[in-house]
Amino acid sequence: MTFNARAAFLFAALAAAQCASAGEIAASADLGSTGLGLHLSTPLAAKLNARIGINVAKYSYDGSTSDVDYDFKLKLATADALLDYHPFDGSFRISGGVVYNGNKIDAHARPNAAGSYDINGTVYSAATVGRLDGKIDFRKAAPYLGIGWGNALKQSGWSVGLDLGVTFQGSPNTALASSGCTASAASCAQLARDIAAENAKLADEVDDFKLYPVVRAGISYRF
Prior knowledge:
Mean pLDDT: 90
Number of helices: 3
Oligomer: single chain
Strand order of the largest sheet: 1-2-3-4-5-10-11-13
Distance between the termini: 31 Å
Order of helices and strands: HEEEEEEEEHEEEEHE
CATH topology: Porin
Shape: elongated
Number of strands: 13
Largest sheet: 8 strands, antiparallel, barrel
CATH architecture: Beta Barrel
Number of domains: 1
CATH class: Mainly Beta
Strand content: over 45%
Helix content: 10-25%
């Protein structure tokens, strides 16, 4: 099932739950570390709300391992299903749930100023290596835990909210490979072995993403 299909399923599920409730529903638009998001909320109990949403964004940044410089493109695409518990019957909430995690990173290696790559201690010309690209992704089902402020269902009309939390998306999966090696078969085989060692270094470079911080603020409207 694609990300769009999963998001549509989540919204359909919440719409069904909302129809079964007293007709209360709130829509929220938010912005933060998960990108631009849209969420729907409906009450389940006196202090408990259900919230589902989608979040998307794209970011570009530079990074490097000890040997190779990269252009990274982070593509955020998540769909979350959350429970918001308001222990004091006010705006403070404790949130938990699961995130369908379509986040991924595309990595493109850049040759150094001399037009070469130093890969695992071996120097290769850029023409020999060809393109050196990597893909980084994460487990698809990731737990979420956080706190926040705001209860879009507490009052009619407009309100604001804030989420602070962590998505536990696990250690990243990295796949680094070259295309278009122009050297001999033996040299290309050695290049492949060196790239495998570089792939391990790339995995270490992006390991901080296994805990993804969630900081987002939004505005909500209760219908």
